[in-house]
Amino acid sequence: MTAVRPSTRAALLAAAAACAASCTILNIVRQTEGWTLTLQRASDGPNYVKPAGFTAYKPPHGARFINLYLVIKNDAGEARWFGYDSCAVDLDNEWLVPSLVTSYMGLLVKINGNEEYSAGESSHRMLTYAYPKGRSPTRARCGGAIFELTEILR
Asked: What is the spatial distance between Cα 20 and Cα 120, in angstroms, rounded to a whole number?
């Protein structure tokens, strides 16, 4: 076991406490339509995202960002397109599509529109939703896969 200096330990505990208030580690796996989707975590905020480049994104007035961190894998034997608009969170009787999609392993890069996945390819994506303050989604849907969020984001 490696010894941890008290100041380092305090910093790690503070970081863990901050995450506990805003994000939950999940690793929930769903398979649908030849895709494997792993919801690694969900977070309420931060309310500021700045991918590579000069544009910073903030939620509109009266909203906050809900982020879903997904690993998306093409299980098919051929290249296929994945539409991020197929991943939505519920709001009353409607489904909200992501306001922003970015990579989150390595350089934070904005993903525009649909993305082609080679056979067996997987990617880490953060789907960011502008959601009304004071409310939380209960479910997320990606194609035919449903993720229950009631106990995760409260």
From this structure: 33
